[in-house]
Amino acid sequence: MPGASTNSQASARKPVDGPFHGKTDAGAIVSEAKDSETISFYSNEAEAYTTRGVAASNRQLHAFMARLPSGGRVLELGCGAGQDSQAMLAEGFDVTPSDGTPEMAAAAARRLGRAVKVLLFEDIEETDAYDGVWANACLLHVPRAHLAGIIARVQRALRPRGVFYASFKAGEAEGRDRFGRYYNYPSPDWLADAYGDRGWKGQIEITSRKGSGYDGLPTDWLYVFATKA
């Protein structure tokens, strides 16, 4: 396991009551790197989800941009409404916004006035292409068995010293929320294992903060920064 800097208090690994709503067997029904029920939610709810007036992820986004070279090339995964890409474009970064759901990508394109790539995480194929990859609240939908492989794809797509940011909803066992969306719900230790100890410069930084999500329920968020060696 790599060294992980964290201010989270991880508990013993066990299923957690609350966000799972009785569905803790997600691993048995999700065999691919994507989950059809989750994708269907975002397809059907794209308009409501992207017009709810959510601001850019200011604190973490500013920390991410501060680590990038001026005008650096950035890939945003799971861009949703496109507000984070919009903020990065305004700061002069060369941003490629993407989302795995065509309906969400179309909504972001209307906001940004530019094409938004429809990209599934497992289809990331580039090598040494980006100074940064921004994945806010999207890799949390990757089935646990596939997360390490997706992270490896992101690492490969980064240039040396490239910065990777992702956020996750903390937990101890995968499951679904009341909308049927799959979540991997990792602990800090589990997440550090998924990132691995090869190819990163220094420690994987994992911090936590209480907040909420689209469902309005209290959430312990995990914020992860990693820099490619």
Automatic annotation (TrEMBL):
Task: Please list the residue ranges that the record marks as compositionally biased, kind Polar residues.
Answer: 1-11
SUPFAM superfamilies for the chain: S-adenosyl-L-methionine-dependent methyltransferases
Q: CDD domains under this entry?
A: AdoMet_MTases
Give the GO biological process terms.
Answer: methylation
Specify where the region named Disordered lies, as residue ranges.
1-25
Listed Pfam families: Methyltransf_23
User: Does this UniProt record's set of keywords contain NAD?
Assistant: no
Q: Where is the composition biased (Basic and acidic residues)?
A: 14-24
Going by the UniProt record, its keywords in alphabetical order are:
Methyltransferase, Transferase
Q: Which Gene3D superfamilies match?
A: Vaccinia Virus protein VP39
| GO MF annotations, alphabetized | methyltransferase activity
Protein name per UniProt: SAM-dependent methyltransferase
Species of origin reads Aminobacter carboxidus
